[in-house]
Amino acid sequence: MNSSELKGFLTGLILGDGTIDKGVNMRAFAIKSTNKDFIDMIESEINNCSGFKTKVKYTPEHYSCGCNHRESWEFRIEAHTYFVKMYHHFYDDNRHRRVSGKTLKWLTPRGLANWYMSDGYICLVGKTKGRIYNRRVDICTDRYTLVDIKKMQKALHDRFDVNTSIIKHGKYYRLRIKMDSYESFFNLIYPYLVPSMLYKAYLGYEQQPEWMSDEFWSIQESLKSANPLQASA
């Protein structure tokens, strides 16, 4: 990756579960996941294109004080001046999440895939009862204000031709990919999904919908035959 690709790659991670910590002259970056392949991919890509000092921390599954914690891995880039400049595009003065005017211009298809792997999911409504009658492709944006989510919505439409709606989820708002953009969205990100997260691209159709191309249907059939796990990252 060149410098702009690296920035797009990191932007997707930060829009998702990635964090930039406190600091003045240097700041560190970290992201945690229960999917080791996702963390391994991030580590490999960053180490291959940058001089950042990185490390991965493993936290085993444990039960204590009534808590149930799944095993997880945290990828960390040690404090660096690079993240001082990026910080204020993603946080306000009170460390609340924000999206600056430049942030979404940095996003690339690979960064979009990172964002989705980090904070996106498919809900196949009715699957547990044996008949899927609805599909929801959502991106969690619980950390952001409605104003910023509308910026994300506009950027997805203007830059990637992906149409979304904004739905209420409890007291938060989330982005939901519209059906007319399923194929364009997944065609953008599918090449960058780690194998153990391909289930996040499986839409659960028994027959090919009229709107779906033969090429995309072939991908759906291959995912179906692989029996993708319906789990969260």
Assign the structural class, choosing from mainly alpha, mainly beta, alpha/beta, alpha+beta, or little secondary structure.
Answer: alpha+beta
Record the strand order, biggest sheet: 1-2-6-3
Provide the gyration radius in Å: 18 Å
Shape field:
globular
Question: What is the CATH third-level topology name of the largest domain?
Answer: Endonuclease I-creI
Describe the largest sheet: 4 strands, antiparallel
Distance between the termini: 25 Å
Low-pLDDT segments? 228-233
CATH architecture of the largest domain: Roll
Q: Strand fraction band?
A: 15-25%
- How many beta strands in the DSSP annotation? 10
**CATH C-level name of the largest domain:** Alpha Beta
| CATH homologous superfamily assignment of the largest domain | Homing endonucleases
In N-to-C order, the SSE pattern is HEEHEEEEHHHEEHEEHH
The overall pLDDT, averaged over residues, is: 93
Helix content: 25-40%
Count of alpha/pi helices = 8
What's the number of domains? 2
Question: Would you write up a description of this structure?
Answer:
This protein is an alpha+beta fold and 233 residues long. Helices cover 37% and strands 23% of the residues. Strand 1 (19-20) and strand 2 form a beta hairpin. The chain is globular and about 55 Å long.
